[in-house]
Amino acid sequence: MYVLSAIVCLTILGLVLGLLLGIAAKYLKVESSPILDEIEALLPGSQCGQCGFPGCRPAAEALVDGLAPATMCPPGGSALAEQLAAMLGLDLDLSAVKEPELLVAKVSEDTCTGCTRCFKVCPTDAIVGAPKQIHAVVADACIACKKCVEVCPTECLQMHPVEVTLRNWRWTKPTLSFDESKLGQAL
Amino acid sequence: MMSLFKNPRIRGGVHPEARKENLSDEKIVTQFPLPKTLYIPLQQHVGKPAEPLIRVGDKVLKGQLLAYSQGLVSAPVHAPSSGIILDVNDYPAPHPSALPIRMIVLETDGLDEWFTSPVPEDPFQLTPEDISLRVGAAGIVGLGGATFPTAVKLNMGRENQIDTLIINGSECEPYLSCDDRLMQERAEQIIDGVRLMLHGMESDHAVVAIEDNKPQAFYAMQSAAKPYPLIEVRQIPTQYPMGWDRQLIKYVTGKEVPVGCRSSEIGVTIHNVGTAHAVHKAIRHGQALVSRVVTISGGAVGRPMNVEVPLGTLISEVFNFCAVDLEQTARIVMGGPMMGDSLPHTGLPTVKATSGLLALTQHELKSSDVQPCIRCAGCVSVCPAGLRPLDMANNIRVNQLDAAVDLGLKDCISCGCCSYICPSNIPLVQYFKYASGEVIARQQAQHKSEQTKRLMDDRNARMERIAKQQEEDEKARIAAKAERERLKAEQAAQAEQESLA
Amino acid sequence: MIVNMRPKSGAHIGVKANVSFIMWQVMLALIPATVFGLWLFGWPAINLFIVTLLSGLLFEAVCIRLQGRAVKPVLMDGSALLSAWLLALTLPPWAPWWIGVVGSALAIILGKQVYGGLGQNLFNPAMLARVALLISFPIEMTTWANVSPLFFSQSPGLIESWHITFSGLENIDAKTGATVLGMIKTEFSQHHVLSEILQDYSGFGNFIGWARGSLGETSVLLIGLGGLWLMRQGIIQWHIPFSLLGSVVILASIFHLIDDQHFISPLLHLSSGGLVLVAFFIATDYVTSPNTQAGQIVFGMGCGVLIFVIRTWGAYPEGSGFAVLLMNSATPLIDYYIKPRIYGRDRQGKPLEIPKS
Questions:
Q1: A35-39, C64-68, C86-90: which has the minimum mean pLDDT?
Q2: Percent with pLDDT over 70 in chain B
Q3: Other beta carbons within 10 Å of A67
Q4: Domain ranges of chain A
Q5: Is residue C309 part of a domain?
Q6: What is the predicted pLDDT for the residue at B232?
Q7: Residue B3 has pLDDT above 50, yes or no
Q8: Crossing angle for the helix pair B150-160 and B187-201, to the nearest 10 degrees
Q9: Are residues C129 and C185 in the same domain?
Q10: How far is A94 from chain B (nearest CA, A)?
Q11: Cα(C100)–Cα(C51) distance, rounded to whole angstroms?
């Protein structure tokens, strides 16, 4: 008797809950993934292609579909990786993130011919100049997309590491003498 | 029991071994041999760097203006001795990284010839604004190590109606004794400087706070201050970090400075004894700030001393004079051993912030054998700011910087108490400095990415506009061409008709 | 020579005490009570003590090895030795050898290493092991040997002790009995009152440790002295021990005054079981106790109240192990709610108001 009533109860319960789920799926359906736009907003948006995708929107789609890790975006560095991981609920292995070496484009004044090709392709208008005048890069606006390097006919535009000065020098993270990475694996 | 109620409890703090026994009984050495070349950084203060107004090859006198102050918070730089300007260029800065910074290089001529500004008969007849101007023009900054321009502080004091001026003579850092000696030997001058500062801030109450492990300095200052009832000389308990301005303000006045406020907003301002002495020299003698008393100490120093050195003297020359054994030196520290930073080599100049130069042996240093945190909570109980360093460091270790900020990372004063006490030798302060820098870097990156987006949007909009414009132009051109052709055709048709007719 | 050119931040100087120094100081403080306990219960106790310590070290070494780290520096920090030592002190002195081995395994592997090693564990390893043993092996863990000091005629000799430790105790009833707390619990269940139960109870004997009990818990005097010495050395603070003992004493006093036939006196509470050992050496464990002084007082009081409640109304005669574990689990919560006030901010973390003058 008890067995029978238990079977009946659970069957009814299962049917009712299943019905509810079905109704919810039909009437509370989310049309498109709003997270896609949020993730695209987080990404740098320079369409640099360093992740291997043809732009930030395709990269965001890959992230949402789980085809790319949170650490995919080199210019974003670990800060972006953390934000992405938090938003998508992904596991984050920060040891895989190499902090990007900060680069900035520089014009070699000896070889610049003032051809104006570079500042036509610069996505952030970081190169200033006029025809037949030597061009210059506004370092603060340069995002190191390297588009100018590709079009420069005289190779006078080159990427250089951002110089460390007292203004942007930072304390490094202390390293521990007991083996931390091993400890992490054991956890 | 009464004193328990009168004095607010001092939070946290440690009692490091003082290590200043011998030096506080020895006179300040004033005959430091004048170096051949001096390296004078343009930025020796908080704020904007000074702007040089001399040229290479110029001959300058001691105390002559080399670079003028630029902007609201800044300080000028003066020639520490007479001589010829050799160079204005980048040289390694007295900073843990020793990265280059702009400096004026001065070749001394050995005459040490002064250039002094005119001195008023009675400085108390000057307006308070004039006092500030003179202090500012003499390049005086906070000599306790914070190097905030003193004139700016005097102005803020005047605007906020200060009811207590605290003169910080606590010198709570171990090893250092330069302020102690200054108070013992030049008490009258310091008290005079305090009176001038009171005048400059239109305030009428000053408290000179001296730790009770410096009885000689206390008696000297007390007898010098006797004629002036406005100035009270008080002993405070010996404890590190008693010289932290906010701790001292709380202890002396009972007021707590809210986070994000300057102390002048609650009617208190604080200056170092060395600063008071510099104010005296600037106003009574017209001498700019061109030298300072530096404590040279540590286990590797053959002749430890307090010595008055011209600003810009290379540390190597100071160390030579004090017979420092570089073979024994495991670490060079500028400032005190608690808050000071390590320097990578001795080819760096002394600056206004250099209160001490320590050559520490391996034996004196805290062990760098880092062990896991055992949560002994020693750091929590010694933190004067009321933080929980162990939790902050644990979060930073796993890159949870936001969590560390929530725990109060920005309220950390880097006093070093937690690192001092930690039995696991965890470099806690370095974790916090790293995290603070990283937080700033991330904010900058965030800002840059926003700017980038804006720039790209602007550019895209412009491109679109241009394209549209071109399209319209093209359309117009086509239309015009069609019109022309139509006219031509019409004309041709007309001509045909006419010919037919 | 400047050895390391990398930028180093302050403080450049510091206290000389390091982790292993602290551990060795604690062990030093335990020596009087341990030596007394080993003497009091003779060779079987010494066997058990050695077995427990050695197996503790062995398990620690195996765990470290498995993690691929160097074994020697970790063993030298003394934490595994201390955990095993504390565990040994809480075991019945004539327990068989495998109780020590299983206990050490529980303490070191389950109590510490699975959490990530030193400083990461949520529960006190020694107490975790003791409670797990008590629940799993109730007979072995409640067989209390009679007082039988070394070199006394009726005490077991070296050879006999090996039998006791390694092949089990024969003739149990003649050589064992109940602890004071256990006896009181049993007698209460038979509706006896305290004045009958405690007819031949010697308060002084219990105080100096001449009584049945765990290997190192019997001498309140020596444990207390060790604890006070640790306090003087600055290794432990007064907050946890005093609030713990204080709350037990206050509660016991109140109930004893109300009914002195059914509630044992505060002095008996203090001088029996593991109360004092727990107060000075177990509850004060840095890793598993709160960070702030206020939090430590709450923690100590919580332990004290739980010990009193379990001893008075619980099924077990002694409750200190359970009490400590329960409060250990509350430690993160205490640390979350009891934080120091940051300078210039109020308790909620908002900046203070500028006072109007």
A1: A35-39
A2: 98
A3: 11
A4: 35-96, 103-161
A5: yes
A6: 94
A7: no
A8: 50
A9: no
A10: 9
A11: 6
